[in-house]
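Sequence in, structure out. Go.
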Amino acid sequence: MGLLIKTENSTKDQDNTMDFVFEYPYLNPPVFQLGPIAPRWYALMYIIGFVFTYFIISKHPAYTRRGLTKDDAMDYLTYGFVGVIAGGRLGYVLFYNFGVYLKNPLSILAVWQGGMSFHGGLLGVIIATLIYSRRKKIPLLTMLDIVALPTPIGLFFGRIGNFINGELWGKPTDGSWGVKFVEAQRRLSIDDPTQLEKIFGPPRHPTQLYEAGLEGLALLLVLWLATRLTYRSQKLKPGSIGALFLMGYGAARFAVEFWRIPDQHIGYLWGTDWLTMGHVLSTPMIIGGLLMLIVANMIKGPAAIETELTKNPISPPDQNEDAALPVSSELDAVAAEVSFPESTGEVIPEATDELQVSPGSDVSEDVLPDDPEKA
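Output:
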């Protein structure tokens, strides 16, 4: 199940350049078949993405310094999984095919038939992260930074899954490279439906691979560098990584949309021959990410709240029940200036209405009234 690479001599302009055309074989959708168990390639890519997300979150310094454990990271995967599936499905229903699902609402639940929206899944994850951060008492901007870092890995594998499925391809190209996808199949035998002839289309832009490189590998490198600037060098403030993710993904998706075929039932928007739904949904991400980056870094205070946590990490929850609470550097500074006298071990008597004098006291007995009623 690999790529069949064909090199064809180009006769354009009488030159001897070589065109690299990839004939992509049709892959059976299941990864393997074991009785009723038949995992799909795209589902496998989702699982790989969640595994990487778990390991990166559980090892993230801004996460572990708050005393959170691997079990807490596993809890987040549950939140994130529900957010991705619910948000992705509802996003597809609302953004891409609302009329069809409005006529048959029960088909919304048929997730196995396909139809997921990244932008809807992103909204679902943000809501899930908000709920999780409140429950674990983690600042929302910090938690968004933690979650944003491994997300490009999931996007990378997701786009590879699209490529394996032979879906979401690009426009035809007459350039020096392209991929011929199986765009149709012809039955060769009436009696045997498995005998099919694969019909390849023209060479197309492999936009799935473009997005895997931009939204995945390139964006991961940017966020990794930004994480070092935020939580080590303290040159950026919490929220910067989440903002850069919104900007980076939005810009990458916006650019690739010029070479990507729009959804057939939607086509190009507003009478143009280039504007797609991907352009429309990615534009708010770019603008929102830019505003978030500016506002987050305009907030007064230390370069990052995590500065004090770097010096004094919080113990795990099993040792300290309040481990998830953030540490205030201002309160620590005040506490350091206040000195308390050392304890002498002397027990202070409880306050009473009568004045008591200890033996050897400097208080004169003349001070005491003879008659308690005259006191």
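Check: The beta strands are 4-9, 18-23, 177-180, 182-187, 196-200. The longest strand covers residues 4-9.
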